[in-house]
Every structure is written in C-alpha cells, then in structure tokens.
Amino acid sequence: MNYALISLTAPLVSALLLVFLGYMSGRKHTGLWVLGGSVVSLVSAALALQSAMQAGLPQTINLGGWAEDLGISLRLSSLSALLLVFTAFIHLLVGTYARFSRHAPHQDFWMLSAFLHASLNALWLSADLFNLYITLELIGLAAVAMVALSGARAYKAASDYLLLSLAASLIYLLGVVLIYAQYQTLNLVHLASISSDNTLTRLALVLMTAALMLKGALWPLHLWLPAAHASAPTAVSALLSGIVVKAPLFILWLIWTELAPPELAKQVGPAVAAAGMIALSAAGWSAMRTPYIKVLVAYSTIAQLGYALMALGLLMSWQLPQLHIALWLFVIAHGLAKTSLFLAAGEMQGTLGTKRLSGLRGATQTVPVAMFAFAVAGGSLIGLPPSGGFLAKWVLLEPMLNQPQYWPWALGVLLGTLVSAAYIFRVVALSFDRARINPPDRQPDRAGHWLALLPALLVWGMALIGNQLILILAGGGI
Amino acid sequence: MTPELLIDLILALLLLIIAWSALFAPSRNDAMAMFIAFGVAVALIWARLGAPDLALAEAAIGAGLTGVLFLNAARQLPESGRTTTPRKSTIKAAVFVLLSVSLFFLMLTGPVGEQLTSPVSDTRIVEAMPDAGVSYPVTAVLLNFRAWDTLLELLVLLLALSGARQLYTSSHISKAPQVAAWPLLTGWTQILAPLLVIIGGYLLWSGSKAPGGAFQAGALIASAAVTLRIVGILPPLRWSFWLTRAVISVGAIVFLMVAIATSLFAEGWLNYPVELSAGIIITIEIFATLSIALTLALLIVGDHEDLRT
C-alpha cells in the first residue's frame, strides 16, 4: 500500500512544485521534472503490483484510522496496481514524446499532465463513492484544460466537454446522495454487503450509470468525444484516449460488480452489452466515413470502448471471471494501441501538413515509421494474432463460443472486427497509393515517429506476457 | 398546516419561480439578476434546513462571487442583450417542467419518499468527536474524517484556475477596456473590503467550534479582493509574480506535507496524532483559506494581465 501511495504522491508533488516555482527553473527542465516524477511513480507502482500479487487479497486502508463508514478507504487490488503501472507508463511515454518531439505542447502541459496522472492514480485506489466523484471532477477539469492547450480553435470543443462533464458529475452526485441517504455509508466494500434491490437503489444506479457513460463517451452518450479528442494537441489526445476515458469505465465496473445487487446486474447486463455492440458498428461506421485523420482515430476509440462495454455487460449478466479478465485486457491493449495511433496520426499531420485523410497518399514512402506504427497499432485494434487486442478478444470469445445460445454475441464481435478492419485498411490502402504522393512539408521527426511506434510494438508483445497479465487480473482482482 | 410548512412551501415555490426566470428571461441582464437571486434563495433554504455552513458558502460563492463573475463577463461581451430564441425556450421549458415534476413526485411518493425522509443518523460522528481535535462536526468531517476529500477539493480549485489560464496563455484574447470606477463605489469599497476581511478572519477562527471554516472565510476574503480589484485599488495579481503562485499553491502543499509527514512519522496517511490534531487542522485551514481566497479572486477578476505567464 505504501508503494501505491508513493506512486500517487510523486506526480502530485511535481505538479504542485511546478505551480509553486513557476518556470523559474528554466523552460528546458520543466519537462524533465515531470518525467522524473513519472519514473518514480512507475517504479513504485511496479513494487505495489508485486506486493499486491504477493498479498493475493486486496489490501484496504482506512485513511486517518477512522472506521470504514466514517472516513475514506483506499484499496489496492492487483487490478488497481496494474492500472497504476499502466497509467505511469503511458504518462512517461507521452511525456517523453512531448519533451523530445518537434511538436512540443505549451509549457502548461506539464503541470496539467502531472495533475491528471495524480488524479487517475487517486481514482484507481479509491473505494469510496464520494471520493470517486472528486477524482472524476479532477480528471474532467484537467482534461478540459489540456484540450484548451490547442488555443482558440479548440475552445468550442473544450467548453462543450466542460459543460457535459460537469452535468455528468452532478448526475453522478445525485446518485451518490440517494445511495448515502439509504445506506448511510459511502464505502464500496461495506455497500457491497448491505445493498439491496429496491426502487431507490435502482434510481441511483441508473443516474450514476448514465453519468459515467456520458463521461466515458460510451455509446449512445459519446457525441462530445470526437471534437474534443481531435482538436487537442497530439500528446493530449493520446492521454485522453489512452487512459482518461477508462476512468469512468472503472467506476462503472465498480458500481455494477460491487454495489449493485447481482440479480439486478444480471437483468441490466444484456442492455449494456447491446450498447457496446451497437457502439462497435455505429462508431466504426462513422470512422469509415470521416475525412479527417484524428477524427477517425477518435471514433475508433468509441468503437473500441464498445468491446469493453460488451465485456462489462456480459460480465454482469453471466458473472464469469474470464470476462473480467477480457474487460481489463481490452482496456490495456486499447490504451497502448491508441497512444500509438494518436502519436502517429499527430506526427503524420505535422509532417505532411494536412489534417485530411486524403493527404496520407503515399505515406508509406514519405513518413514510413509513423505509418508503420499506425498500421501495427491498427492491427491490434482489429485483433490480429498475436497482438494484445487479439488476446483480449480471444478471452472474450471463449465463453461465447462454448454455448450455442450465446453465438449472436460472437456475431457482434465479428462484425466489430470487420468494421475496425475496414477503417484501418482504408488508411493503410491510401498510404500505399504511391502514384499520387502528397509531398511532405518538412523532414520527418525521427524521434517522434519511433516513439509512436514503441507502444504499438509493446501491444504486440503483450502476448508474451499474456499469462502473467491473466494471472494478475485473476488474482484477487475482484 | 403549520406556519413552518407555510414558510417552506413559499421558499420552495420562490426557488422554482426564480430558477424559471433565470433560465428563460429574454434579456441577459434580467437573467443574471435572477441568477443572483437564485443563489440567495438557495442560501435561505440551506439555512432553513439547518445547514448554516452551506448557506454561508452558497451566499458567498453562489450568489456573490458568481454574480460578479457574470457581470464582469457581460461587460466584455457585445451589447446584444437577448439570451434565447422563443422557440428554443419553449422546448427547454417543457423539458424543465417535465423533469422537475417527475423528480418531485419520485422523491416524495412511494417507497423512494419513505426511504429518503428517514433522517441520516450521526451517531458515528458523535462517537468519534472526542478524538477529532475540533468541536464542530462539519469541520471535523472536512478536515479530519474525510480530509483526503478536502485535499483533493483544493486541487479542484487549483485546476479550475489552471483551466481558466489557458484562455489567456494559449491564444490572444484582447484586453478588456478598463472602465473608470464610480467614485461612490470606490468610497464604499474602502469601507467594505476591510470589513469583509475581518468577517472572513472571524469565520476561519470560529470554524473549529461553530459554522464557518476555510471555504467560507476564503470566499469572503476573495470578495474583498474582487471589489478592491474592480475599483482599481488593488494592482493586478500577476501569475508571473512568485508570491501569487506561492499563495495559490500553499494550501494544497501544506496539506500534502501533512499527509506525507503523518505517513512517515505517525501511524499513516492523514492519521493525525490525537494530541496534535487541533493544531494541524488550524494550520491547514489557515493556509487553505489563503489559497482559496486568492484562487477564487483570480477566477472572478483574473484578466489578461493577471493570468498570462
């Protein structure tokens, strides 16, 4: 637990010191300062993961030593430790990109990204409904401020994002109030044992679910995402799509697997899974039709979240532990692949001087490394073996294929795969069109392109540690 | 019908009417005035419900500071005063009525109403109070039982300000024209501002045993700073000046230092030693008040000159 707290404190300290010191320490060193915080956070998160694995069961501490329904509890399970590692790793990677690539974001990026990192870590560790609300609020504000880093052209998207995110927070809060009024505790562990199926609980769950779906851009409440994610600076888009949308998903998973009575979860599960299935094809269709590179990547986030939503819905209705593993494998594989896709898309935009997909003609020749990164990461989104995306999809499909009555769900997964393949190959096919090459505006930035490739290679390497990951997710995760 | 119920019903009806007018007033100025009135009505309702802390915070932040923020923003917008088109208003109005009526009936009738009207028991808090370090339960909850929440709330304020800064640092919004202050306003402000600071200080001091505390005190001191800044007595609070940044971040920094210190030298994260807890809470509250006051002031009147790096 102490390592987890170090992992949480390190980015917070670097963010607060950045505010305190301003950029007095020199503009050059601002980034290194935050990267240092990420390294410390990553190392301690790894140690936390190791201790969580050894402990087996989730470790809980009651902050301040107060009783669990008076104070706030933090909980370190092997899943939350894994998410700590994942968050620190993506922040380190995107931070390195922001520091060393040509398209460096505004100086304020560093402070905001460190705050975002700390807030995400606080969320993964929280086991208290109201505390989760505050972490959501922090994440939302940091994300909006980071979208606004792009300058005036992003203000519309940022203000829409802000308003929707605040509205969603208030709806979530109303749900929390209803739960507290009924059970007089906010502690999730405690609530799991006393919650019962009644109108008030149902109302609270509906409110919280709607709010979290809005915040996490889960279909059908996803319409704000493409504008916000596509207009943000490249490094920010990678963080937002890679990790931030998973935070509401985590809470959604918590409330439906712990707070909600199992019988109710069983009834609601198919509806959630169906929303995921529609997201896969509907958002995939939009990705196929859009003329802009980053918007395509943003729509693909909504589509891919459909898999996670489907895994969650089926987990709720069938209560199989494999689906828990599938859900979190999707989250991690998608996080890595999407970081790579957004970095590659941003690099290609910058080098080729266009936001349009048509500008990617001949990209295999002009920006080969970035295009390779895009294709490789896209392969994981489609689920080509042996990538991380394939691993997750395999775990998800296994229980479906065993029972003939579940085959329609498998058909949904297949359809989603076809649609993802269609929009990824649309880009890849354009990039091989070397007859009508779009000449680049400037020399490719090698460091940036290789950094974009790194997470794509890692997601393909996930198969190598697949057993380990499954073991971590199975061990004391729930 | 008891007289109390009559008052409650009048307040509830008043709130609905004001909310309606604030949402659907055709002119911008009317809508802003109604929003301020809405804040006052909500504050009255909190007071009636026996939550003086919330009433104070709502009056200071919801009615006072947000009202100034609106007026200040409207000054910089083009003159056109209309807020909504009639047709859109009708649709919105229908949704508004439908939602409030259904929520109202959901809350008051059937099993939901029964569960909601049962009072929340606070025996746990009463039992823990002797170890809390302060004698006022709300302060004990905010700074001891659920201190981690409050630490994060301070970060929320800080992040809100960082977000507002982006509007000035990442693009070139032109500077708003400075309007000369009305002499009478300047005179009044010179009397009002010191009073506000004194009341803020009193609220901070009384927070450990009576309603009050860091947020309320910070909001009052912020409103003093805001009025002084508007009439031009206070110079710009520049972000690039180190003291501004220091004051903005000091609340969260001190709180985090307490958390780290308790986990290194005491029993754990934010687990204050009982004999020191009164001192720790007061220290945190003083620094938090400073941060809250300056952050709120900058959020309201922070301008081109203040927020650019």
UniProtKB/TrEMBL annotation, chain A:
Q: Which UniProt keywords apply?
A: Cell membrane, Membrane, Transmembrane, Transmembrane helix
> What would be one Pfam family of this protein?
Proton_antipo_M
Q: What membrane topology is given?
A: Multi-pass membrane protein
Q: Which GO terms describe its molecular function?
A: NADH dehydrogenase (ubiquinone) activity
The biological process GO terms on file are: ATP synthesis coupled electron transport
Question: Any keyword Cell membrane?
Answer: yes
**Could you say which protein family the record assigns here?**
Belongs to the CPA3 antiporters (TC 2.A.63) subunit D family.
What name appears for this protein in its UniProt entry?
A: NADH dehydrogenase
TrEMBL record, chain B:
The keyword Membrane is assigned to this record: yes
The UniProt transmembrane annotation reads 6-24, 31-49, 55-73, 93-112, 180-205, 217-234, 246-266, 278-301
Write down the membrane topology.
Multi-pass membrane protein
Q: Where is the Na+/H+ antiporter MnhB subunit-related protein domain?
A: 188-295
Pfam families from the UniProt entry: MbhD (PF13244), MnhB (PF04039)
- Keyword Metal-binding found: no
Q: Where in the cell is it found?
A: Cell membrane
Keyword terms, alphabetized = Cell membrane, Membrane, Transmembrane, Transmembrane helix
MrpA C-terminal/MbhD domain location is 13-79
What InterPro entries has UniProt attached to this entry?
CPA3_antiporter_subunitB (IPR050622), MnhB (IPR007182), MrpA_C/MbhD (IPR025383)
Q: What cellular component terms from Gene Ontology apply here?
A: plasma membrane
The family classification in the record reads:
Belongs to the CPA3 antiporters (TC 2.A.63) subunit B family.
Stored PANTHER family: NA(+)/H(+) ANTIPORTER SUBUNIT B, NA(+)_H(+) ANTIPORTER SUBUNIT B
The protein's name: Sodium:proton antiporter
- Originating species: Pseudohongiella spirulinae
